[in-house]
Structure formats: structure tokens, C-alpha cells
Amino acid sequence: MTKKDNPTIEEKIAMLEQKVAWFDGDEFALEQAMDRYDEAQKLADEIQVELADLKNTIERVNLTEG
Amino acid sequence: MQSPKFSVGDFVASMNQTLEYAYTGVVVEGEVESFKVNQGKFVFFNLKDDKASVGCFMMVFALRVPLEDGMKIEVRARPKLTQFGKFSLTIEAIRPVGEGSIKKSFELLKAKLDAEGLFAPERKRTLPSIPRTVGVISSMQSAGYADFMKIADERWGGVSFRVYHTTVQGIDAPDDIVKAINFFNQLAEPVDALVVIRGGGSADDLAAFNDETLVRAIAASRTPTLVGVGHEIDTTLSDLVADVRAATPSNAAQLLLPDKRDTSEHVRYMMSRLTPRIVRVCEQRSDHVRMQLNSAQTALTEQVSHVETKIRHISQLLSQYNPAIVLRRGYAIVRGDMRAGGVIDIEMDNVRLTAEVHTYDEKR
């Protein structure tokens, strides 16, 4: 699976920032706004779910010592 | 029983064998006296207390804390009888003990490393904004480690922490930590950040983090380093040389990872700006249409008013040509035979007359 297929949460946040920036930019077009809004909302929901679900892992690397 | 008989050389060798068997390593605490370095390679000094004094020897490269006469230190050493029959301690490790000696050692080493530029701000690297893999060097049983992990779990997820369990105080701690740093720096896939943590303790407990070899290992780390040792008021040379210095282990977790609550809030904030933006643009468009309509209406009104004025003006002009109005101004209309003796009708504003022409002269 490529990185693009499975972006990290940081990449998703960057993508969301880019989508949101479109609304403030010169390319903003009201005709496209609703579709773009839906895409951004979907991404934002994904990020919120990931933020809630992500867990850290701990691995001891020098098991034979101490 | 017959006493054993030796040559001098055998006797010294036998004594050393006995000493090695009886004391594989001893730890002795005392005050430094007659400290000197010979030929830039050999370190000699006496370790004394109020009852005795013993000679000490070590190689200069093994000297990891600056020494001065009067400093109180703890040494790990092997007792040895030299070929000249002199008893001495061959030093393996040294650490200053007591607040005064620790402070003195700290200041001397700090000045030395500072002169080399090890603490210079331009050497500092930044930590990755969100590290994926983090090497942690700490005692896994320590409260500082527990605090770090607790705060790390509260703040962010998805990080792979690779923990190298070490001692974090005592004479062996610096070597343990250096070994851990080397381990992480030799990984084929290096971690994104290296964190060295230890909770609070006395100056003596934290002295391991002022060890020269350890400080240099942190400075030389390929991976960016974050050091959080002791409490906010504690400063060690490891703190000073680290790329990022944390006041405490908890603070280290705060500096290392973003807070997912802040990120979540940021995402919510970004989305909350979109609807007002769309509404604002709709309102702007609506205002624009309204303004256009108003302009058209104003232009139309002006045109109508202009035509009305023009009609009024023409009407007024026309009215000036109305014969009745001319008669009202005192003029008269004369009709009939305009010759001398002819009969004519004269119409005035409010009377009609019939008259006879008395004379008729052409005007020239």
C-alpha cells in the first residue's frame, strides 16, 4: 500500500488545511463549495476518529539486560 | 607450618592475585589530594580521609569528571601492589559526592564544554513535529518514566516507544546511558527522537548526568535529543547539551508530542469557519444582485423623470402658442376684408367686434 493510499494523521491534517484554504483563496467558487465542504467534513470526521482511537505502543529493546 | 617463600616478583604477583580474588572491585570514598597529570596521559592523586590516605592511578582518557584537590569523590577501583611495592588503587570510575564537589565538578566541566561550543544554540536541532518512533532511555521502574508515559498517552497516540531500560543514578549510570544512546544511534532504521528521562532526586542522584562521556554522547547523537532530568530547578550538563531541554519528564512528553485535544479543537475550528464563509459569499452575491437591481431601478426612474420633464417643457412651449392665451395677453385676431371700407371681425380675449376698415397701408 502506498503512502498516498494510507496517509498518516499529520498528512490528513495537512490535507484538511489545504481543503480549508481553498475556501479562503481566489479559486473559491460557490458552485463547488458544497462538494468541497462535504469532502472536508468527511476528512475532519476521519481525523477525529483517529485521534480518539490511536494508541501508543511500548517495546523494551534491551530485554536481556537489567 | 612452613612459611611460603617467594621471589620479589612472585610475591607481588601473588599479592595482586589475592587482592584480585578478594576485591574484584571496591568503591572508596575520600578527598582528592595531590592531583596531577603526568605526560598528558597518567593521572595520579591520593584519596584521603582523616584516618588514612591511599594512592590512586588512572589513565587520563578515563577521567570523565574534572578533579581538583579538596574535592570529595567516590571511586570504583581495583586495589593493586605495584612492581615497586607501592599499594595503589587503579581507578575505573569516579563520581563526585557531596554538594560542594558536585557543584565544583559541574562548573569546571561546564566551562570546558562551553568553550568547545557544545552548548551553543546554533547546534540545537528541532524535534519532529509528530515523531512516529521515539527512543526512550530511562529506568522503567522510575516515577519519572511513569509520568512521561502517562502524559505521552494523554497527549497523542500511534507513537512507537522503544525503551532502553537503564540505571539512572550511581557510578554505572553514565556508561549504561551512553550504551543506550549508542544502541539507538546504530539502528538501521533510526528513531525520530531520543528522549533521556529521570525524575527528581538529590544533586548526588543527578550527578550521573554531568558525566563528560555521557554529555559528549548526547552531543554526538545522530538522532535529535530531548533530555528531561530532575525537577524544574535542576540543571545538568546533559540538559544543557540536549537539542531540547525539558524541565521534567512530564514536560518532556509535552515538548515531544502535540496534544490531541488541541488538534481536535483545531480541526473543529477549521470546519467551523467554512459555513460562515459560504454564507458570507452568498450574502455578498445577494448584495451584489440587490445593488444591480437598485441601480437599474434608479436609472429607470431617472429616465422616466427626464422624459416627464421634457414633455412638461414641450407642453409649456405649446401652451405659449395657444391663441386663447395670446388673446389673454391683450392681443386680438382680425379676420375679414382688409381693405379700406372693408368690414372686419375683431376677436379679443372676452369680446368680439365688427368694424369697418378706415385706412389700409402696407408697412414697409
If you had to describe this structure to a student in words, what would you say it looks like?
The complex is a heterodimer of chains A (66) and B (364). Chain A has helices spanning 9-24, 30-53, and one strand spanning 57-60. Chain A has 66 residues and is mostly helical. The longest helix of chain A is centred in the middle third of the chain and has 24 residues, at 30-53. Chain B has 364 residues and is an alpha/beta fold. Chain B has 11 helices and 13 strands. In chain B, strands 1-2-3-5-4 form a 5-stranded mixed beta barrel. A 5-stranded parallel β-sheet of chain B has the order 7-6-8-9-10, with helices on both faces. In chain B, helix 3 packs parallel to helix 8 and helix 4 (173-185) runs parallel beside helix 6 (212-220). The model of chain B has no long low-confidence stretch (mean pLDDT 92). The A-B interface holds A 8-10, 13, 16-17, 20, 23-24, 28, 30, 33-34, 37, 40-41, 44, 47-48, 50-51, 53-62, 65-66 and B 129-130, 132, 135, 140, 149, 152-153, 156-167, 180, 183, 260, 263-264, 266-268, 270-271, 273-275, 277-278, 281-282, 285.
Q: Which SSEs are present, and which pair or pack?
A:
The complex is a heterodimer of chains A (66) and B (364).
Chain A: H1 9-24, H2 30-53, E1 57-60
Helix pairs in contact in A: 1-2
Chain B: H1 8-22, E1 26-38, E2 42-48, E3 53-59, E4 72-81, E5 87-96, H2 99-115, E6 133-138, H3 143-155, E7 160-165, H4 173-185, E8 193-198, H5 203-206, H6 212-220, E9 225-229, H7 237-241, E10 244-246, H8 249-256, H9 260-272, H10 274-320, H11 323-328, E11 333-336, E12 343-347, E13 352-356
Parallel strand pairs in B: 3-5, 6-7, 6-8, 8-9, 9-10
Antiparallel strand pairs in B: 1-2, 1-4, 2-3, 4-5, 11-12, 12-13
Helix pairs in contact in B: 3-8, 4-6
- Through-space gap between termini of chain A: 39 Å
Q: Strand order within the widest sheet of chain B?
A: 1-2-3-5-4
Strands of chain A, count = 1
Main β-sheet description of chain B: 5 strands, mixed, barrel
Sketch the major β-sheet of chain A. none
- Report the portion of residues of chain A in β strands: 5-15%
Question: If helices are DSSP runs of H or I spanning 4 or more residues, what is the number of helices of chain B?
Answer: 11
Q: If you average the pLDDT of chain B, what whole number results?
A: 92
What is the number of helices of chain A?
A: 2
Shape of chain B: rod-shaped
**Greatest interface:** A-B, 33 and 38 residues
Q: How far is it from the N-terminal to the C-terminal residue of chain B, by CA?
A: 189 Å
Structural class of chain B: alpha/beta
Instruction: Give the overall shape of chain A.
Output: elongated
